[in-house]
Design brief:
Layout: E1 2-6, H1 11-31, E2 37-41, H2 46-56, E3 62-65, H3 71-74, E4 82-86, E5 92-96, H4 104-112
Parallel strand pairs: 1-2, 2-3
Antiparallel strand pairs: 1-4, 4-5
């Protein structure tokens, strides 16, 4: 699952949201219900959000609105765009700017095969011999 925190008023958020739509159009049939993309808007005005999503044709990702939620503090981020990638076991395996993941399609396919993600913003993986954590 990808959770994309974004807003209609945020220019850097628009390309990642469009990419989410494109990924689901191209790979949604193959992924089926195994990959979910959720857009979580920080907008204050739900009507403006609905209009923006409709105008852009972003009908594949599931869209939610923050309403009165304080999710920024819950997930410990300050700016947008910001994404979380959750693996098939419900563990957050990446959090950060979407530009820090070069190929989300490959990331999803790898996670579906049970592989781990590596790189900046990824959860540390277990070191094989010592059982120590590597720094991301």
């Amino acid at each position: 699952m990808l959770v994309d925190f974004w807003a209609t008023w945020c220019p850097p958020c628009q390309r990642p949201m469009a990419h989410n739509q494109e990924m689901l159009e191209e790979h949604g049939a193959t992924w089926g219900d195994k990959v979910k993309i959720i857009g979580l808007s920080t907008d204050q005005d739900v009507a403006k959000l609905r209009s923006h999503v409709e105008t852009k044709g972003w009908n594949k990702p599931t869209m939610f609105w923050q309403a009165k939620s304080d999710f920024r503090n819950s997930y410990k981020f300050k700016g947008i765009p910001h994404v979380l990638i959750v693996d098939t076991e419900g563990k957050i395996v990446f959090k950060g700017h979407p530009a820090n993941r070069e190929n989300l399609v490959a990331d999803f396919n790898n996670l579906l095969k049970g592989e781990t993600l590596e790189g900046e913003g990824c959860a540390p993986k277990e070191a094989a011999a010592e059982g120590e954590k590597e720094s991301p």
